[in-house]
Amino acid sequence: MALIKKSKGRRDDQSPSGYTRLFGISELGSLMSKVHGASITAGTELEKLIIERCKKILDLDAFLGDVDSRTPGIFVATKKQIKQSKLISSRYEPDFLAFDLESRVCYVIEVKDGDQFDTKKAAGEHATLHNFTNDVSQALPFSFQIYICSFNARSKKEVHDGLKHKFSIEEVITGLELCKLLGINYDEIVALRTNDHQNNLEYFVDELVKIPVVNSMLKQATKDESQNSSN
Known about the structure:
Helices cover 52% and strands 13% of the residues. The protein has 231 residues and is α/β, with parallel strands linked by helices. It folds into 2 domains: 13-53, no CATH class; 55-186. It has a 6-stranded mixed sheet with strand order 1-2-3-4-5-6, sandwiched between helices. The longest helix is centred in the first third of the chain and has 28 residues, at 26-53. The chain is elongated. It starts with 17 loop residues before the first helix and ends with a helix.
């Protein structure tokens, strides 16, 4: 999991961040910006954890040019490889392409760390995956299946509802379902991502109490609670 203390966040040197405008405290705005940055980084790290455990494609164009001679299985290409490919032409880029050489299906996959999206965002994700598939379907000898994954969702219904029903239920999967599809260990990834929970909590609290006005409020709240308990 991403560490908050390693996140740059946003400083208020030039203009106040949205968090500073929300709280009216520059130091708190900076800290919350670091939290937000770490949350975004966590999504990128999730993609890395997934690809590190898959059967990776080393050279996408070479792979696509010789699929008939390869051992059956599911092989995965990254967004960077998709972008660099000379055989695939599209301005849209999903997170992964997973090729099942036995059933000859290409899975067009987008992975999300979160599970709640506004209607516009969900519609945009739907358009991106479908437009990409339309662009490349004639160039590749595979049938296509679109999947958008909310990695932490507990059920397909949660994913479906979080995406405001912009995707069909057949196009959404959970993290557990994605890992089963790719043949990787879901529990291992979850365990790795929880390792830094305590570190992040301790850092956040330590930084919070360094802010004078927040420290003063916390002390007053503790004093008031103590007095209320004794009455």
